[in-house]
Each structure stands twice: as structure tokens, then as C-alpha cells.
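Re: weekly structure request thread

Next one in the queue (306 aa):
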Amino acid sequence: MTLANLNGILPVLPTPFLPEGGVDLTALKSVVSFALECGVNGVVYPGFASEVEALTGDERAELLKIVVTTVNGRIPIVAGASAPTPEQVIGHGRVAMDLGVNHLMVQPPKELGAENVAAFMAEVSAGLPGVEIILQNAPAPRGDDLSPQTILDILEQVPAVTYVKEETLPAGPAIEHILANAPAHLKGVIGGGGARYILDEYQRGACAAMPAIEIADLHVEMDAAWRCGDRAKARDLYVRTLPLLALQALYRMRLTKHTLMKRGVITHIGVRAPTPNLDKAAVADIDGNLVELGLIPAVALQGAAE
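Done, posted below.
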């Protein structure tokens, strides 16, 4: 099976929850449909922005099935398969592969130690023949901040790792170093950081970005402008969206869900993950940015936080 290469905007989908706390399957369908309407190049589920650590294994499987069914083969899907042990990663990977998903994103456990990551990934690869792995290099405190040389050593030892999601800070120099020295089977390096550094990542050779979903239409427009050589338009969009992305770094899933609610995609913004609450001042700041970006009408500024 030949898999499509991963390029462009690949947002990480949030997990909507019902008011009583359960997963909202209908709302997830709406989120996926919103992503498709925005013209994204692929979607990622579940990831950190999906509150994956607050989901049970059964919930992960049920929600991923919703994503696959709603996408219906129109764009690539990257399934998050991170877990503390290779056996658990393989278990998540087999669920994804049974659904027809063959791109898996794996963040090695932070407690593993850089010197043991290659063996961990090799065991995962052996248990999931035919899969393409995106190695997620997350920054501390969430991840290990693997050095570019460690990444290259892993690539040499584990050919199934065909992409790297580079999220260390600053990511740009690491992206350049990895691309300049990578083995031939590496298909690309993907940027992280919520698209807060996307143009620097693209300038240094990143093939894609994995931001949150709430302004995917603007990120798609920015990506298209960059790829067709209209760097001025890409930079204008980047500068205009950056204030909202700075707030997103603080409020994470709450900002994503609040924005999706304001945009008519979901109706409830509850979260499971420990995340700062949105007070009235934060809501006013977020909504002001959305109005300036033309994403909601000015009358929506009267809205309040949950």
C-alpha cells in the first residue's frame, strides 16, 4: 500500500465532551466536517490537544473510528499512538491499522531516556509491520527534547520512522540539521508549537504543520500563500493570527473549544485536562481577536465564558 505524503496543514483535533463529562461523538463529527470545509491536508487524532491522556482506551478507539468514518478517505489521517510501553503503543497502532490508518504519531515516554528511544521505536516498528511512524519530539517538561543527533541516530536504526514532528524550542535549527543529514527514507519534518513559529519552520524546510483546529481555514490560506510564493500574504496572515496563538499557548483546549463554539462548530467547551479557566477578561481578549480576524461578528463580543 502506497501512502500519500504528509504536507501542509494537519490540525490536531480536539475531543468534545458532553455537559456531564462523556465524549460527544456527534460534536466530533462536526469538528471533522469543519476541518474538511477548511481545506486541511490531513488530520491528527488523538494528540496532546485532543486531551489524549484523559481518554480511556475504549474512548480512543471509538473516537478514532468516528474520525475515520467522517473523513471517508478524503484526506490522510495520522493516529496518535503514544503510550508508556511498546506493547501499549502497538495496541493503539493495531486499532488504527484495523481502521485503515497507517500513519502513527508516537512520542517516546519522557522517562525512557534518550539513549533508549531507538530500541523503543524499533520494538514498536517490529510489532506494526507496514506502518509509517511520525516520531514526535516534544519539548520539556512534556517531552525529552531529543537532540538532532539523537533523532538522526533513531532514523538510521528504525526505517519505519518516515517523519519527525519537531517541537523543541527553537525548532528551526533542529529542522535544518535533521533535513541536511537524514537518511533517504525520511519523507519530511513537521512543525509543532501550535503554528506559532510556522513561517520559520517552513523557511527551514518543514513540509507541514500540526496546529490546533480553531483557525484551520486561516492556516490553510497561509500555507497556500507560502507554497505559491506569496510570502507577503503568508506573513500578513501570520502576523494577524499570532496574538490569538499566543493566547492559545496559555489556555490550550479551552481556547480551541471556545473558538469552535463561537464559530458554530460545537456547543459545549468542557475539558478534562487541567487547563486554566477562561475568565471574562480572557474571553473578551479572545473574542476581540476573532472579530479582528473576521471569524465572528462584532456582536459576538457580548458572549461570556462557560
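The mean pLDDT is 95. The chain has one domain: 8-228.
Next request, please.
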